[in-house]
Design a protein that fits this description.
Blueprint lengths: L8 E4 L3 E6 L11 E6 L1 H11 L4 E8 L2 H12 L3 E7 L6 E8 L2 E7 L15 H5 L3 E5 L2 H4 L1 H16 L3 E5 L9 H13 L3 E5 H4 L9 H9 L5 E5 L5 E5 L2 E5 L12 H14 L4 H16 L26
Organism: Microtetraspora malaysiensis
Keywords: ATP-binding, Kinase, Nucleotide-binding, Transferase
GO molecular function, one term: kinase activity
Amino acid sequence: MGEPQPRGAITLGETMALLTTERTGPLRHAPSMAVGVGGAESNVAIALRRLGVPVTWIGRVGADGFGDLVLRELRAEGLDVRAIVDDGAPTGLMVKERRTNQSLNVWYYRAGSAGSRLSPADVAEDAIAGAALLHVTGITPALSDSAAEAVRHAVGLARRHGVTVSFDVNYRGRLWSRAQAAERLSGILSDSDVVFAGIQEAELFVPAKDDPLDLAAALADLGPAQVVVKLGAKGCAALVDGRPLVRPAVPVEVLDPVGAGDAFVGGYLAELLAGAPPETRLDTAVTAGAFACTVSGDWEGLPTRAELGLLTRQEGVTR
């Protein structure tokens, strides 16, 4: 008999093909585009895997070249990929336009996509029960009724089996209204152990506060024991088991901020699963988030554990 596999993380959601303009300027004048993949849940999964956590990803892709690309990339990153190849719907598409050196535009083409057809039947109970942590986001419930039911089903299974539930609000205004999001996501938030939210995302559920720590406390009153408010270039504020904590961001030259929040979440959760104290969780979170900003692409720049110290190293060349 082989050694038992360590309990790791599991996540589910839509990973899309990603087209990115290769030079700055309007999309309509772009002569070529880079092809990749991206999705909030798989971004977090890759961040976790690079930091040493075994990860399972559940999702759907179309029976097309983009779907093949998604599955190849996720498997190449070491994820346990449990995917349904859906021949009745296409793989979703994400397009990024670098309009200026300081601004990005992002469009999604995911209505009726294979990922939007995720359902409770796609979520195996044994996969949830065998994990230490389930991570979900507020994006998947916005895609369709069946995708929302899949997330609720997964969270229910995790609660039944004593699996820690992590939830990143990840509100997308292009997918639904704030009122719709608040209504559909409030139950997931209250059933979660760890919650991540930006300021405006937190205000979907609680009144506005001047102090991010007060905002974290208000969210914690709804159920989660750990609440982290992501503040972008200002770092983060957290309430972890009643302890208030703040961390500044790690200063870097930002090339592409898309995916930084997912990297942040992955860094925090990797340290949580490693049994590290809250201070270490937040330090790794802001470091991983900074790494993601330094490279074009949603996840390509994510660090391994050996690389976490690179951003503060005085010597720029490793020999």
